[in-house]
Amino acid sequence: MATKKQSSLFSFFTPKSGSTPTSSTPKSPAVTKSLKKEKIEDDVTDEESRTLKRVNNDHEGSPIARVRSSVKRRRIIVSSDEEDDGENVLSVRTPPSSFKDEPSTPSSTIAEISTPKTTRGLRPLKPCTTPLSTAAAESFIDSFCVGEDDLNVSSASVDTLDRTMYQVDMNDRKPRNEELSGDDNGKFVHETLAFLKPEKIRDAQGHRPDDDDYDPSTLFVPSQFLKEQTGAHVQWWNFKSKNFDTLLFFKVGKFYETFHMDAVVAVECLGLTFMRGNYAHAGFPEAAYGKFADQLVSRGYKVARVEQTETPQQLEERNKQSRGAKEKVVRREICRVTTSGTRTYAVIDGCNLYGGETDNGETQSKYLFSIKETVCDQRSTFGICFVDTSVGKFFLGEFCDDDYNSFLRTVIANFTPVQVLFERGRLSSQCKTILNGVLSSVQKEALIPKKQFYDAEETLKLLSNDKYLGADFSKWPDALRKMLDPDSVIARPNASSHLALSALGAVLFYLQRCLIDVDMVTMHDFTLLEPLEQSPVQKPSQGSVWANRQMILDGITLENLNLVPGDNRDSQAASLSLYSTVNKCQTAFGKRLLRQWICSPTCDMTVLRERQDAIEYLMDSCNVRFIEKAGEMLRSLPDLERLLQKIHTMGLKYRAESHPDSRAVMFEAKNYSKRKIKDLLNTLAGFKVCSDLINFYARIRQNGNGPRLLDSCLGSDKDDLGAHLEHFEKLFNHSVAEKEGMIVPEKGQDEEYDDACKAVNEAMAQLEVYRRQTEEKLHCKITFFGSGNKRFQMEMPENVSVPRYFELKSRRKGFKRYSTEELDQLIEELGRAEARKEMLREDGTRRVFSDFDTRRNVWSDVLNRIAQVDVLLSLARYCQTCGLALCRPEFVCDSEEPVLSIEEGYHPCLAIKLPTNDATSACSYIANDSQLGGGHPRTVLLTGPNMGGKSTLMRQVAVLTVLAHMGSFVPARSMKLSPVDRIFTRIGANDRLICGQSTFFVELRETLVILRNATKHSLVLIDELGRGTSTFDGTAIASAVLSDVSRRLQCRSFFSTHYHSLCKTAAVNPNIALAHMACMVENENEANPTEECVTFLYRLTNGVCPKSYGFFAARLAGVRPEVVKEAYEASRVLFDSVNRKKMAIAAIKEVARGGGSIEQLREMISAL
């Protein structure tokens, strides 16, 4: 049995046949006999039974109590979880010292450690001197303790545990340089399996990868191969065959194990170490799941958590009741699949110290995005669905897009998905180009039409399930009801919602696969995305035209203006974004709202004025105390928005009764329960802070008046928040619940639990009445004796004469114990009452979470109001700390024409974050005026030297416009503008290799979007159009575009260029103003440009810049003077050639006007 105990975990996943021993040392007869016995017995059940029971069954009466050995034992101090009250001291048997002193003995071979060669990319093992392990590791470590007769397994296995989790004192061990895993050819078992070879791999249905119906998420595993595996290995391969694209964290006892190809990934990405054996195998304790799963998901892997969902005792009972073959392994089920787009930050996922905050530093939303497309007349109609699983919010929409898919690009830029689902074989090439270009680094997954990517009808049928929204669609969220046919008595999609509902169906399928579908849908948080209007339907003089409207910022504009940090930006660019500049938010949900304000600035004049009033109020020196106190309060808040979703999930009855997690055997269950309660307490404490902030604002308001927006957010406790918090304060003892990991309602707070307690007390009272009646009847003293199922036996003196219906149960000297049928009935009633009470007590925690969730509308309303306050405080802090002169933008809605007037404006980001190196430490940002419309031409043709600040000025005007539409003050002496419906940018020169688009093609496509979609209320920035082609072609295209923008669109626009010939044409256009970025030139030398010195003044000035001074820029870039001179000579030759041609053409025209002969004109043209 000793040998079996040590080797069972290795044989757990060892094939039944065909395996070769890992040691060539002959086995003793005793060992051989033991190993044969192990092959027959149920080693799997025995191992799991020992793993499950070892900690709590060391008493003498336990059937699995450990045999006390006389061998000296050493202590390993283990750190299990940060929430443990104290350290656990485990006894681990140390092999006798003779093991290492006799290298010729088998045990010596076992005691030495073998490290995998670095050819597999593994880290060499380093001995650690600090004893460290975990309580969860007890069964796993003990499984590898060996005695003198153990020849088939290695005691050194404990040394191959993950060095990031364990540090075991190995000073008495000497590593040996030999392979720990693999066969003689250095290959793992999975590398030799034929059905895993690329040329033979198939999905579960037998399709090859080149088949249209191939499903990469499944794998065909031959039945004959499974017959040769152990029961647990069959389980693993069955899971793998259905989740081939997912890494399996397979629970074995208290550890998550990875096998075969999954183990290779785990070792390479997580720094784990392979265990001994000819198949890849690595593991880690349960407490480390959150850390390691998060690392793999961040790298783009999918991770499935496979849990044991029954104990060995339950397996034994199931086998007793089964008439068929007896199973040898406990049941296991996939309890969660986590991907980059489906993170939920559950208690088992959390890696923080206190278990209260949930974002782990990741405050921004990470969306799962599904898209469905149909094409008609070369125009695409899209159905889209986004879901943020961390907060349970859905966004749906359906729209007909233009040929450049502008709205699709805009939506993607605003929601930044991290994972994309699309219908296999149904996307157009252009849509694929967008997804591969804009979302090149995002994980994409093709779903099978109808089977996985549900159609609209199937989606609605699914939503009608009782576990989701129910059949009564009148109670569905408003966003979904708007997508239904109003004339149908059952849920049917209307004509303009088929694609959007189908996209939602794809998301539902994927959430089902990840086992969080009910958690998300039952949040009832659905928002309908509608295409924004491009232009007002009424005259702009009416302010109501702009009500409920937002400025449109597409992905190109968000990137060109650097408004929010992008995935492809470096840290410096991210720090210079508008979001990073104005972000002074103290809460995670405030930061997410600030990003929404930046990506979708409002055009509603009422909202803008309310925000401006609030920020002006907060900037008042009289309110410094409020800002400091509010910031301190908000800083203490956890991510309440994500906590609300977590609490909703933990309060679901479905989770407690039907979800696989409800059956999972968790060895850190008590710690998880404590984390759950800590999350609830942190949430309650957070809302208590919100209540305190509301009360504090009420006390400091001047004369009882404050800005309207702050009053609506903090002015009154309209949700009666204090009453709800008081309810939970009285509901249960917080300190006891946090300590015990269980919530027991206080008396009078839970009617159902109170009734159960009352029923138990009444049953006890009935027993006491029966005892007293029996005492009076028999005239003797009677006491109840016994425990468990034998309690309430009536003990009385043995000389008492009892009726015949008294049944003797037991006796002791001088006394006998009886029971009666009536007593048995009373005991049975008590048992039922106690069972119900215990059931309600165990369910008490979930019931409290559910009670909290029923008030979600209250919490959400408070959360939204506090988020707005946090963003307003952030903008006020920016205004107070930026160190620039600020003004309140003036919006004009009654102007006959669009206007944008800025005096002494600064770029909000660059002006306060100039470089501080030695070369630029003395720099200061130059303020500039900008006038577009309102008595001035609406288009400015901007020229100037290279590096003179043209692009910066254009971006400055656009960013100031965005900041003004957020309701903030702006860094300028004054700013006056009429609302801007959309900002277009054509800045920079970038090709798109993935999309197969050249630099010039990208320029033209972006220009096309401007010409097609811009209105007179738009702001257009075009920077150096035409640079990607020849000078003459570029000049011609730039001239035509400039003319169309200024004459037809007549929108506010900046148009920068180095084509000075455009200035002559623009000079006669009354809609265009000529301006340039001023500079000062010293030592100007026509013969030698390397002697010129150009000083950039960065000041916008009227008129045209004489030239671009490109040779000076070349000199600044470090180009050798010889090369610059040669370039200048080439320029003069080209210039002279052009001039000669112009003179010759002029001469030809003169001769033609003077009546010259045809022969003369022919000769002149030939000479030209």
From TrEMBL:
Residues 1018-1034 form the DNA mismatch repair proteins mutS family domain. InterPro entries: DNA_mismatch_repair_MutS-lik_N, DNA_mismatch_repair_MutS/MSH, DNA_mismatch_repair_MutS_C, DNA_mismatch_repair_MutS_clamp, DNA_mismatch_repair_MutS_core, DNA_mismatch_repair_MutS_N, DNA_mismatch_repair_MutS_sf, DNA_mmatch_repair_MutS_con_dom. Residues 1-112 are annotated as: Disordered. Residues 10-33 have a biased composition (Low complexity). SMART domains: MUTSac, MUTSd. It holds the Pfam family MutS_II. GO terms for biological process: mismatch repair. One of its GO terms (molecular function) is ATP binding. Residues 35-61 have a biased composition (Basic and acidic residues). Keywords: ATP-binding, Coiled coil, DNA damage, DNA repair, DNA-binding, Nucleotide-binding. Residues 816-843 form a coiled coil. It comes from the Eukaryota. The keyword DNA repair applies. GO terms for cellular component: MutSalpha complex. Belongs to the DNA mismatch repair MutS family. Component of the post-replicative DNA mismatch repair system (MMR). PANTHER family: DNA MISMATCH REPAIR PROTEIN MSH6 (PTHR11361:SF148), DNA MISMATCH REPAIR PROTEIN MUTS FAMILY MEMBER (PTHR11361). This is DNA mismatch repair protein. It comes from Haemonchus contortus (Barber pole worm).
